[in-house]
């Protein structure tokens, strides 16, 4: 088990989050042992997986006496919304850098959902050139950080590229321990967890967290929501190796540690296809859960298909709900009627 006590942190999340059965879906699909881990219930700014990650990022930032946070993301990024809220809560500034690439036409996508909430939290929003790489985004943020330093600020950057210590991974190392404890109480020793794989930070933390289980067998299956499988696997490998270095652990990443599927991009990051829409409506109407078109809707579509595979029918299958329901309001004409 990894020790996290060496890393500074700040309490932001409501924990533990529930692990609940998907009773109606299990009955409808004729498939027992379906569960949902409710990390949409972490509390801050409507919750989600980013809240756990930010406890360690902002712990580090406060240790360095940061006065403002810089973070980037796509237009409807959950990370920027949660960072804006956390910065407001902690009394520090927040600069958000957004790729305004718009897969959905209309004013709602550009001004509601996470964008609306980020504005309400008082973040400064900047746009950057569409289609630039994560490394180029980091360069843009560094230039702004230098400008802020000249103004007497002490900025802290949450980088987009995976060439930096991935402090957010620590949040899901801890979450993996929480999940294992819940599963043991339910007498479940073998299971598969399905999670949206975007930045890769959440999946990486879970992968490392379950590797320490000698008495449990837990597979982590990522559903690609932004990149094709090969690119996402490269990114995850890099994040995992950097995390092991950060943890001062001599292990290396093995190919079998990373399980990914890119059949649910549907059709691309931010795009809303038929399978994603069906998954969102099924989750809402059968279980009262709110999923979104960018992340969890795509991952839930993959979860539902896995639930139908005969070789997994006796094994508990767990959907990790990473939050993001504010994004629904950016797609009103696409989702209903």
Description of the structure:
- This protein has 337 residues and is an alpha/beta fold.
- The protein folds into two domains: 19-48 and 166-335, Rossmann fold (3-Layer(aba) Sandwich); 62-158, Rossmann fold, CATH 3.40.50.
- It contains twelve helices and ten strands.
- Strands 1-2-10-7-8-9 form a six-stranded mixed sheet, with helices on both faces. A four-stranded parallel sheet has the order 5-4-3-6, with helices on both faces.
- Helix 2 packs across helix 3 (78-90), helix 3 (78-90) packs parallel to helix 5 and helix 10 packs across helix 11.
Features:
single chain; 337 residues; alpha/beta; Rossmann fold; 2 domains; 6-stranded mixed β-sheet; 4-stranded parallel β-sheet; 12 helices
- Which structural category do the helix and sheet elements fall into? alpha/beta
CATH-derived architecture of the largest domain: 3-Layer(aba) Sandwich
CATH class of the largest domain: Alpha Beta
Q: How much of the polypeptide forms β-strand, as a percent range? A: 15-25%
Q: How many alpha or pi helices? A: 12
Low-confidence stretches: none
Gyration radius, in Å? 19 Å
**Largest β-sheet summary:** 6 strands, mixed
The helix/strand series, from N terminus to C terminus, equals EHEHEHEHHEHEHEHEHEHHEH
Mean pLDDT: 94
CATH topology of the largest domain: Rossmann fold
Structural domain count: 2
Shape: globular
Number of strands: 10
Distance between the termini: 49 Å
TL;DR?
With 337 residues, the protein is α/β, with parallel strands linked by helices. Helix content is 42%, strand content 16%. It has helices at 23-29, 49-63, 78-90, 107-111, 114-120, 134-150, 169-185, 201-211, 229-246, 274-287, 296-307, 332-335; strands at residues 19-21, 34-38, 68-74, 93-99, 124-128, 155-158, 190-197, 217-224, 259-261, 317-321.
């Amino acid at each position: 088990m990894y020790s996290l006590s060496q890393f500074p942190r700040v309490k932001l999340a409501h924990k533990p989050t529930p692990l609940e059965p998907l009773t109606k879906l299990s009955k409808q699909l004729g498939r027992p042992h379906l569960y949902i881990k409710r990390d949409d219930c972490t509390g801050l700014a409507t919750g989600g997986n980013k809240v756990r990650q930010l406890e360690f990022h902002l712990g580090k930032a406060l240790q360095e006496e940061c006065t403002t946070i810089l973070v980037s993301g796509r237009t409807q990024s959950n990370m920027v919304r949660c960072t804006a809220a956390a910065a407001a809560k902690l009394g520090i500034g927040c600069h958000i850098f957004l790729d305004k690439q718009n897969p959905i036409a209309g004013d709602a996508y550009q001004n509601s959902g996470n964008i609306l909430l980020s504005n309400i939290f008082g973040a400064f929003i900047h746009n950057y050139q569409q289609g630039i790489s994560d490394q180029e985004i980091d360069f843009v943020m560094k230039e702004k950080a230098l400008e802020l330093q000249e103004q007497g600020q002490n900025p802290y950057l949450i980088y987009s590229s995976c060439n930096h210590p991935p402090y957010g991974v620590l949040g899901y190392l801890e979450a993996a321990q929480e999940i294992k404890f819940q599963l043991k109480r339910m007498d479940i020793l073998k299971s598969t967890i399905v999670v949206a794989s975007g930045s890769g930070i959440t999946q990486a933390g879970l992968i490392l967290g379950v590797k320490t289980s000698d008495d449990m067998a837990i597979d982590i299956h990522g559903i690609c929501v932004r990149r094709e499988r090969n690119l996402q696997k490269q990114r995850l490998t890099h994040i995992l190796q950097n995390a092991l270095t950060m943890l001062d652990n001599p292990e290396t990443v093995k190919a079998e540690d990373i399980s990914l599927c890119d059949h649910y991009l549907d059709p691309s990051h931010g795009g809303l296809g038929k399978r994603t829409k069906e998954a969102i409506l099924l989750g809402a109407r059968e279980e009262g859960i709110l999923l979104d078109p960018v992340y969890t809707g795509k991952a839930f579509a993959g979860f539902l298909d896995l639930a139908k595979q005969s070789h997994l029918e006796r094994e508990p299958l767990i959907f990790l709900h990473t939050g993001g329901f504010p994004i629904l309001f950016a797609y009103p004409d696409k989702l209903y009627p």
